[in-house]
Amino acid sequence: MARPSAPSRPLYLGPRIKRLRRELGLTQQAMAEDLAVSPSYIALIERNQRPLTADLLLRLAATYRLDMADLAAQDRDDHARRLAEALRDPLFAEIDLPALEVADLATSFPGMTEALLRLHGAYARANQALAEGREAQAATPATDPAGEARRFLAARQHWFAALETRAEALSTEIDSAGGSAEWLRRNGLRVRAMPASVMMGALARYDRHNEQLLLDECLGPQRRAWQIGLHIAYTSLRPDIAAIVRGESFASATAAQLVRRALAELGAAALLMPYDRFARAAQALGHDPQALADLFGVEWQHAALRLATLNKPGHEGVPFFLVELDGAGNVVRRMDGAGFPFAAQGGGCPLWSLHQAFARPGEALTQWLELPHGERFFSMARTVDLASGAGLPPVRRALALVCPADQAPRLAAARGLDPQGAIATPIGVTCRLCQRPECAVRAQPPLGRDILPDDYRRAAVPFVFSEA
């Protein structure tokens, strides 16, 4: 680990130190004990009322195993550059802003600098949307990092051979060691269950200083296994994940971070459900997410995630589309596949049982679907309850796995059913794109259709369209 050289001038890195402390899951008291200083001194540093000394910088690097040789300078210079670019906006044309003052602001007040940059970024995006006549959020990569990340993953069908290969090798090592917790112990890391008061709202926390992985003691076996798998993915699979992210130029750091998070989840799934073994089990069990979850000791949503990523060339599984919604209908996760269309904006079709799952929690809902152009699909939907920290409300989501109708006979949930003879529910992608006239649950008229007045006749359906 490179040792940082003594800085030539005082370093005021309060926001960065505070962010580092929170990333490590430490209180000011705990960090102060680790660094042999007082909690009040840590508080003063975080508020930029005291500079970060060279000695304390060295202790930070040694205690938390960080390479901070030029971290402060890079952060300061990047803030100064970004702030200077923002201040070149014509909005500030009549204000005298000497370069030295800009640099001093970025150096001495990084928190204020970051606040100004966020505010200017929001202003610029709003101006761009107005200039282009859009009321909805712009769908460019720079303003839609989630969409950019999703497109990156979809283009590769959520398949990353190097990540899968490394995860499978690690899975073999873990099985030989007698489980992930024992494998971690042999590699110098203890796994400990801790009360919520220690976890401070986290489900899992890696204590690098004491080389231990702390888990919320309320986590059940499946959730504990998933958190351990994620930790191994973020640490032992870090080089593989970093290589994939470095190989792409993302429009924003947020998009890159979302891809990194998705890759860690894919890595954890590959560790807990090795590809070949899982694919064979899926075939034998009729791609039943619950049966697979029970077999591999994971939760329903993790088995569903793995089913949607069986895209190894030459050994593909059933092509699935996966979507996850919250109670308000917001799309939390979407994994494109199976040729199933999904609207970029606007709600989905309420006739799809996915939207009814919240009224029937824990129940598996199956349904045949038919889109306006005749494409038919088979859907499996249900709710899942996610782990949440102490004192936080429970989190419930609805997930659906959807495959083309001709693949449905491979599923246990559809065995014995005739895909051609089954009665399918006619649904649309979204009301604005669905031209079906006799829909009683329609919320909006479709694009390009005029509606008839209802002065004298009010139909049972919300809108009656003109023939033109």
From TrEMBL:
It comes from the Bacteria. Belongs to the short-chain fatty acyl-CoA assimilation regulator (ScfR) family. CDD domains: HTH_XRE. Residues 17-71 form the HTH cro/C1-type domain. It holds the Pfam family Peptidase_M78. It comes from Novosphingobium pokkalii. This is Short-chain fatty acyl-CoA regulator family protein. Keywords: DNA-binding, Transcription, Transcription regulation. SMART domains: HTH_XRE (SM00530). The keyword Transcription regulation applies.
